[in-house]
C-alpha cells in the first residue's frame, strides 16, 4: 500500500505543479457561478432562479465538460511514460504493475476530485450567500447530489482514459481515441437511442430503453440530476423515460460501477502487457 500511495502522491504533486488542480477548480467554480446567475438570461432573467434550475443548467453542460477534462487529464498516463522512456525505469522499482497503475489512477482521481469538490463547493457557498432567500437545506442537498455524481462521472472517464493509455503505443493515437470515446458517450449514444425510438416508431419497450440508459455513464449522471427534482423532469430529454424506474441509491451504485470497471480492465490489460 505504501508504494501505491507514493505513486499517487507523486501524480498529485505533479498535478499541483502543472497547475491542473488550480485550472480545473477555477473552471468549475466560474462555470457553476456563471450558470447560476445567467442560466435564465434567455428568458430575460438574470440572477439566481432556484436550486432546481441551477442543477438543471449545471448537469446539462457538466455532462460535456467533466468527461472531456477527465480524458484529457489521464489519456497519456501510461503511454506518455512509455514514450518518454520512464515506464521501464518505474517498473524496475520494487512495486508491481498493479500498484503502479493503481497509484497513478488514485493520483489523477484525487486531482479531479479535489477540483470538483472545491470548485463546485465554493460555487455553492457563493450562491448560498448571494442568492437571497435560498433554502440552505435544498441547496446543500442539490449540490451534494450533483458533486457526488460529478465525482463518479469524472472517475469513470479517468478509468476509460487509463484503458486507452494501456492499449496503445502512441500518445497522439491515445489523444485521438480519447476524443472518440468522449464523442461516442456524450453525443452519439443518445442519438442512436433516439434513432432507435424513431426507427421502430416507439415499439422499443420502456424496460429495454431504461436498461440501455444504464450502459452510458453520462445518461446515469443525467438520471441522477435531471430527475432528482420534480421541476427538472421536463428538461430531462431521453432520460425522462427512466425517471421513475430507478432509485437514487441504485443509480449512484451503477455510476460507481462505471468508475471501477474501466480501471479494472486497464489494470488487467497493463498486467498482461509485454512492456
From TrEMBL:
Pfam families: ABC2_membrane_2. Keywords: Membrane, Transmembrane, Transmembrane helix. The keyword Transmembrane applies. GO terms for cellular component: plasma membrane. One of its GO terms (molecular function) is ABC-type transporter activity. The chain crosses the membrane at residues 20-43, 55-75, 105-131, 143-164, 176-198, 246-268. It comes from the Bacteria. The keyword Transmembrane helix applies. This is ABC-type transport system involved in multi-copper enzyme maturation, permease component. The lineage of its organism: Bacteria, Pseudomonadati, Pseudomonadota, Gammaproteobacteria, Chromatiales.
Amino acid at each position: 500500500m505504501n508504494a501505491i500511495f507514493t505513486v499517487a502522491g507523486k501524480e498529485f504533486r505533479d498535478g499541483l505543479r502543472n497547475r491542473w488542480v488550480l485550472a480545473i477548480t477555477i473552471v468549475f467554480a466560474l462555470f457553476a457561478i456563471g450558470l447560476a446567475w445567467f442560466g435564465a438570461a434567455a428568458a430575460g432573467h438574470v440572477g439566481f432562479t432556484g436550486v432546481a434550475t441551477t442543477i438543471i443548467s449545471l448537469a446539462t453542460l457538466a455532462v460535456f465538460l467533466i468527461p472531456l477534462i477527465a480524458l484529457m487529464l489521464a489519456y497519456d498516463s501510461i503511454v506518455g511514460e512509455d514514450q518518454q522512456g520512464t515506464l521501464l525505469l518505474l517498473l524496475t522499482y520494487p512495486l508491481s504493475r498493479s500498484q503502479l497503475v493503481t497509484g497513478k489512477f488514485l493520483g489523477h482521481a484525487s486531482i479531479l476530485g479535489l477540483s470538483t469538490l472545491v470548485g463546485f463547493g465554493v460555487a455553492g457557498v457563493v450562491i448560498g450567500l448571494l442568492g437571497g432567500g435560498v433554502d440552505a437545506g435544498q441547496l446543500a442537498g442539490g449540490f451534494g447530489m450533483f458533486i457526488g455524481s460529478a465525482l463518479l462521472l469524472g472517475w469513470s472517464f479517468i478509468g476509460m482514459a487509463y484503458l486507452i493509455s494501456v492499449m496503445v503505443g502512441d500518445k497522439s493515437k491515445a489523444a485521438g481515441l480519447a476524443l472518440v470515446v468522449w464523442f461516442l458517450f456524450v453525443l452519439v449514444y443518445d442519438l442512436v437511442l433516439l434513432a432507435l425510438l424513431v426507427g421502430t416508431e416507439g415499439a422499443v419497450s420502456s424496460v429495454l430503453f431504461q436498461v440501455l440508459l444504464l450502459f452510458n455513464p453520462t445518461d446515469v449522471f443525467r438520471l441522477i440530476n435531471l430527475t432528482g427534482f420534480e421541476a427538472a423532469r421536463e428538461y430531462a430529454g431521453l432520460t425522462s423515460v427512466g425517471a421513475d424506474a430507478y432509485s437514487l441509491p441504485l443509480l449512484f451504485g451503477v455510476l460507481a460501477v462505471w468508475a471501477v470497471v474501466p480501471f479494472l480492465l486497464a489494470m488487467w490489460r497493463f498486467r498482461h502487457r509485454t512492456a
